């Protein structure tokens, strides 16, 4: 039977609203009749689908392959000209961003729920990226959401066999061009143009006995990327890469690179005395840098990369145009910006807010406290990029101090001595009742709008410290480029000593509500080593008590302890 275009009647589903980074729900929700089709058709209805070239790739989780076939049928029926698809439907999120830019595609559909667990009982996600390679801004995601509310039919090609995604090359699907591309090649090539691979290689070779490396793919998408770079390009032994086979359920784990979920990395680093450990998340846009006895908070990581940027060829050549962080991220990067005389932006949570600044040539390096670090080489955060950035910096630092072995710890301590330290921690309370979460937000709001918080004194029972509130506000953001406004992006309370607490509700959870509480306390370099090198939990103890008191969090959420502390 020749392919036929059919119009299938459907009804809108509630709640197809893209969150911080796409639509994320349980797999079972996506498997409901017409659910995925409705959302794909709504995306195509919100862009100029006819004649478009789109990139398709996913993080290899359960449901990716089937969804690629669904997209093929709907895209062909809607007159899309060409799909560029990753081998077996796989592209890491940063690789997809690069492919969209490199091949000048009109956009891309990314199949990922990022760091959320995968498998039939876990999460799936669909995200639309625009032609600059970045996540669609709110005006586009709002349009998609509006379409999902009124959709009455979708178009699909029938009578066509599934396309073979396992062989590379140019193909046809129901009259539409399709190109299956190598998932890794373009990405590796891009990194080679950014970093000083010769320097990294010579450092790793000459100090190979002293400086051990370990990369953990957490069974997410980045295993093959890590292998291609560390083993095939930099010549390290295959044993420096672990959990490198992407699995549809991530091996039953939670593919989120932090001290809790990347335990496989942390344990091995400590046991084997590894100097440089790193992990990435399910879709490859997050990273964690962790050497023996030295954990780099993501807020410090981006500040340090910015500080050392002139050792990285990409920035040496193009310069650093400006820096930025998401609002809850610590102000460590602001201090670097100040010293270097660079512009520094504070944007809401979510990588989509960095894109306009990059496109306008005002932003080069940015990060989020949630293990997201990146630059304007693409329009997504980039886990493997951050890891190689650190190797480039360490190689340069060792070239500059040839008589000692400079590791992560030495880089951190040197940084604190110059800039001081922003102690930072995030408490996550996952899947709490939405009512309780909303009541807590309302309670904090009451303190903000009545101005009753300002001037209030709070004391910690255990440390005796007193914190006096100097400011309390809801964070609203006006994009400096297109002037679009995003309201209520988190609640902020600042104290006279410069400390800060932020509360916000997650926009990536797939069930109930997740409350995040972020605490930050700055310690001046003049306070000396003892204060600067304390454990994070110890440095923040008093402030955390006060944050819990102000928000009455335990009362509203009925939770004694957070689910995860990062
Ligand atoms: C979280 C993080 C945010 C990040 C987002 C997507 O969002 O806090 O910083 O951009 O995940 O990351 P939320 O709304 O749950 O706090 V990824 O690696 O999941 O695409
Ligand atoms: Co991710």
Note down, in words, how this protein is organized.
The chain is of the alpha/beta class and 566 residues long. It has three domains: 180 residues, Alpha-D-Glucose-1,6-Bisphosphate, subunit A, domain 3 (Alpha-D-Glucose-1,6-Bisphosphate, Chain A, domain 3); 233 residues, Alpha-D-Glucose-1,6-Bisphosphate, Chain A, domain 3, CATH 3.40.120.10; 145 residues, TATA-Binding Protein (2-Layer Sandwich). The protein is 34% helix and 25% strand. It has a seven-stranded mixed sheet, sandwiched between helices. Strands 20-21-24-25-26-19-27 form a seven-stranded antiparallel sheet. The radius of gyration is 24 Å and the shape is globular. Bound molecules: alpha-D-glucose-1-phosphate-6-vanadate and cobalt (II) ion. Cobalt (II) ion binds next to loops.
Largest sheet: 7 strands, mixed
What is the C-alpha radius of gyration, as a whole number of Å?
Answer: 24 Å
Q: Name the helicity range.
A: 25-40%
Q: What is the CATH T-level topology of the largest domain?
A: Alpha-D-Glucose-1,6-Bisphosphate, Chain A, domain 3
Mean pLDDT: 94
Total number of domains: 3
**Oligomeric state of this protein:** single chain
Distance between the termini: 56 Å
Unreliable stretches, pLDDT < 50, 5 or more residues?
none
Strand order of the largest sheet: 2-6-5-3-4-9-8
Q: List all distinct small molecules, including ions and cofactors, that are bound in this structure.
A: alpha-D-glucose-1-phosphate-6-vanadate, cobalt (II) ion
SS content category? alpha/beta
CATH class of the largest domain: Alpha Beta
Q: What's the total helix number?
A: 19
Fourth CATH level, the homologous superfamily of the largest domain: Alpha-D-Glucose-1,6-Bisphosphate, subunit A, domain 3
What is the architecture of the largest domain at the second tier of CATH?
Answer: 3-Layer(aba) Sandwich
**Portion in strands:** 25-35%
- Described by the principal axes of the CA atoms, the overall outline is globular
Strand tally = 27
